[in-house]
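Standup notes, structure subgroup. Blocker cleared on the L-homoserine input:
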Amino acid sequence: MFAEPQLSPLPEARAHAPAQPPALRVGIIGMGTVGSGVWRVLRRNQALIAARAGRPIEIVAVATRTPARAAAMLVGAPGVRLLADPLHLAADPVVDVVLELAGGTSTARDWVLAALAHGKHVVTANKALLATHGEELAAAAARHGRVLAYEAAVAGGVPVIKALREGLVGNRILSLAGVLNGTSNYILTRMQAHGLGFAAALTEAQALGYAEADPTFDVDGTDTAHKLTLLAANAFGMPLRPDAVHVEGISDLQPGDLAAAAQLGYAVKLLAVARRDADGVQLHVHPALVPQRHPLAQLDGATNGLRVQADAVGDMFYSGAGAGGEPTASAVLADLVDLARLP
Ligand code: HSE
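Run returned:
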């Protein structure tokens, strides 16, 4: 008979083990595609994330317009409060971080300002909110000594904000060129590669959870312009001015246009471009013919990509899932782990 190997600490050692640091307590506003993605990934990878963050990250409250759906999801997690009013969540003393995933700009602005005023950090995926009210919100965060984090607002799961703020921080950025809207890229891919009509391709993108609740901004270029505005602020230190972006969308493109482009060796992509010239930095969003061998032409479906030209490192290219619940949750969790690691 062999003794069982002793893998867990002895009782004496346990008594002296440092206490587990308190969990980072998260309240989520909005339990749609991204909110439920965060819930699933956090539950699935809970131990791994806690080990990396140095403490657990727990969802303690949810504010939603669809309580029945949220309640079904939260079965088995009886400790999670379900609230009807996001302002109550923003003021709730059990919440350390407010995760704003509901979208929209005017009420979302109020929620974020309230959360910051109540001493919460805020994580958001809301590019429209940040592009239009980002400076006011950043000033409020600074005033209250809190963090406003938004990796998930640009390019879904591709960590391009971290790339600019961290990996490339020592570089002078020369230009940006990217595909930043998963819905429109999905539509263009389905039209060009499979001959689908615009409306049918949009319906598919909606069913796959890529499109906004109102997909107008996805297809008219506004969503891409919001994201470009955020990238340009990080890359060039520019003020957030979405109205300074020249924007053209994809709604007028016909399958025949895309087929003709393909015959000539081009993919049609909705590009976001920021380039320095003698007059400053010019920002454009428009459909463009991209040679098929170019990495941007090879981004299919909801994939996003960003090419960065920088003075020290040269050309960089980032790509990956640009929309959808779990890819966007991946970026949200990166921000949450950053917050959990704060001293
Ligand atoms: N509707 C957006 C898109 C979601 O399609 O890219 C991610 O921001």
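Discussed briefly. The pocket of L-homoserine is lined by residues 156, 181-183, 210-212, 218, 223, 322-323 (CB under 6 Å).
Next: hand off to the docking folks.
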